[in-house]
Amino acid sequence: MRRSLKLAAVVLSGSLGIASLAACGAKSTDDKSSAGAGASGFKVGMAYDIGGRGDQSFNDSAARGLDKAKNELGATVNEAEAKSGESESDREQRLKSLVTSGFNPIIAVGFAYQDAVDKVAAENPNVNFAIIDSAAADQPKNVTSLTFSEEQGSYLAGVAAASKSKTNHIGFIGGVQSELIKKFEAGYTAGAKSVNSGITIDVTYLSTPPDTSGFADPGKGKQAAQGQLDKGADVIYSAAGSSGTGAIEAVSTAAGDKWAIGVDSDQAKQPALEKYKTHILTSMVKNVDTAVFTYIKSAKDGNVLTGVKNFDLKEGGVSLSVTGGYIDDLKAKLDAATQQITSGQTTVPTAP
Asked: According to the UniProt entry, which residue ranges have a biased composition of type Basic and acidic residues (predicted)?
């Protein structure tokens, strides 16, 4: 769930070689680059956003796309983790190290990479880059933006939240108050109000740009959720990366009938959240893995995607999970809302 602070959303992930990872303060998920069966010179790098692989959310979804490329396309892959409090030069060095190590394409996960990607891509016109959740109007031609219609999936989440709320009071927690996360808020609010125009919606952001720590602080997420619960909210949707796990914990341990709504991945299926799954109403799934794999395959096939490739509700870029069957009773209502969006009858706002 991230986006360029000044633009639209795109995920770009890139992976560094071991020596370069150490040099820029990132860490590799393996002792060395790993390859699928029959790997040749096709080397794919991924640079993660704050939280990295294991965040149970956004980065993990990107990682699943990379894993699929490794297993099905025989790609040699390398993964680079971001570090808390890193500078722009850290991100640039991470990408440059991937280039030096021969990775092409390189995928950067999250809007924070936009400036670094633009600079490094301009210096290396023969290397293909992708960035997730950001789309700069003037980015180099060898940069592809992978974006999503988060507001559409969030609209459906809002429909579910308002339909399940018994207090007519729900909440939204955003990791960083960026243009991207405002799309989640806008869609969620519109969907909820389509069910109940008078519903109360609390909104809390955990950090403001350039501070992106709101995506990786479960403690803050838990505290924010508890504050909303204390005010009467009984359904809380978090678009906050790993900080959202704290919100899910708060909702799951609260007294009474409370629901959490996950984001990016089907969070009811994440091992670290197993004990809370009976309190996760649904998750607004953002299929970053599909976008990552599609991009990598296009590069492997010699026909790399260019420009901005958006994945919306109609293309299956966003959806609601149904694990647990907790929204099964809302199927007709959600199907109708989906049809109205995909047909163009309903235009979902992208700003609160």
From this structure: 80-93
Contact 107, 292 (CB under 8 A): yes
- Helices 58-73, 288-300: crossing angle, 10 deg rounding: 30
Q: Are strands 308-311 and 169-176 parallel, antiparallel or unpaired?
A: unpaired
Q: pTM of the full predicted structure? A: 0.83
pLDDT band at 55 (very low <50, low <70, confident <90, very high): confident
Closest CA to 144 of 101, 189, 196, 108: 108
Element (H, E) at 123: helix 114-123
Helix (H) or strand (E) holding 13: none
The closest alpha carbon to 171, from 258, 233, 78, 83, belongs to 233
pLDDT at 243 over 60: yes
259-264 and 200-207 strand pairing: unpaired
Q: E strands along the chain, which residues?
A: 8-10, 34-35, 43-47, 76-80, 106-109, 129-135, 143-148, 169-176, 200-207, 235-239, 259-264, 280-286, 308-311, 318-320
Q: In the structure, how many helices (H) and strands (E) does the chain have? A: 10, 14
Q: How far apart are CA 173 and CA 227, in angstroms?
A: 11
All structural domains of the chain, each given as residue ranges with its CATH number in brackets, are 8-148 (3.40.50.2300), 150-285+322-342 (3.40.50.2300)
- Sign of the alpha-carbon torsion through 293, 296, 301, 305: positive
Asked if residues 324 and 277 have their Cβ atoms less than 8 Å apart, the reply is yes
| Mean pLDDT across 202-217 | 94
Q: How far apart are CA 293 and CA 66, in angstroms?
A: 6
Backbone phi, then psi, for 288, in 5-degree steps?
-60, -35
Task: Using alpha carbons, select from 191, 10, 263 the residue that is nearest to residue 118.
Answer: 10
Query: How many whole angstroms separate alpha carbon 237 and alpha carbon 262?
Result: 6
Residue 212 has what DSSP assignment? -
Contact indicator for 26, 80 with CB cutoff of 8 Å = yes
